[in-house]
Amino acid sequence: MRSLRYLHTAWGLLVFMILFLIFFLPFLVPILFPSRYRWVGVINRWWARFLFVGCGLPVRVQCQASFTNQKQYIFCPNHFSYLDIPTMGLNPVDAIFVGKNDMENIPLFGFMYRRLHITVDRARLKSKYDTYVKSKEALEVGKSLIIYPEGGIISQRPPEMVRFKDGAFRLAIEKQIPLVPVTIPNNWILLPPSEFLLKWGVVKVIFHQPISTSGLTLADLKPLKQRVFEVIDRELKNNGNRQTPTEQTGTPVPSGTG
Fold first, then answer.
1. What is the overall mean pLDDT for the chain?
2. Most buried among 44, 82, 182, 187, by the most CB within 10 A?
């Protein structure tokens, strides 16, 4: 059985690399023409769809609200697995990632990632400050952001989350942009960070109702952070009680452009 998981993982990596080479040229468009930044979200959606189909992983996308590219959002997902990154590519809104700079070291992929998204070296205070400034600038030109509020794959006991960092919530309050809690309940089972071996199962993602920050001040940061945490935590517990990652579903296409 474990040998099948090795084969599945090797196949998944091959599919990932082939799709990256196919989509690299389209990604050059928003790199060369930054005003076309919405193409990043559109291309990410196609890439994610083909990746999960190619890996034999059905997906279930649930949107609890009608999301539109005419509005801005800051999406805050839990983060237990490397599968969470392509999963957020299924986002119904065109958005860019704010994440750790580890992926900059991957040949060619790192070139694309650091030019289309915002990276941070959490070990350096200046990098964290620069990332915050770049994130504010991205919001000011109309972009939506994806920020993992745990700060990376940190939890040692998924599906229990670690304490959220302040960055996403401070940005949302300062710019008066709604936050969207996002729950990704199964990926830590499908691709555990401790062994990096794929299992067959359903990739599920729930985009919850946006939480308005209109009229909030930085004095409201802590309760806002707690509210988002509780929405995701409740869904993680509910999913853990009522389904297993091997439950079979269809493969819906999320709403939105692209």
1. 91
2. 187
Confidence of residue 90 (pLDDT cuts 50, 70, 90): very high
Give the CATH number, domain containing residue 166: 3.40.1130
**What is the extent of the structural domain holding 7?**
2-242
Give the total number of structural domains in the chain.
Answer: 1
Distance, in Å, from the CA atom of 15 to the CA atom of 125, rounded to the nearest integer, reads 37
- Residue 248 is which amino acid? Q
C-alpha Rg value of the chain to the nearest Å: 17
Name the residue with tokens 């649930």: 62
What is the mean predicted confidence (pLDDT) over 106-127?
A: 90
Tell me the C-alpha distance between 159 and 157, whole Å.
6
How confident is the model at residue 107, as a pLDDT?
A: 82
Instruction: Identify the band that residue 54 occupies on the pLDDT scale cut at 50, 70 and 90.
Output: very high
Structure tokens at 118: 């915002």
Give domain status of residue 248, yes or no.
no
Lowest mean pLDDT among 98-107, 189-198, 218-227: 98-107
Mean pLDDT of 217-244: 88
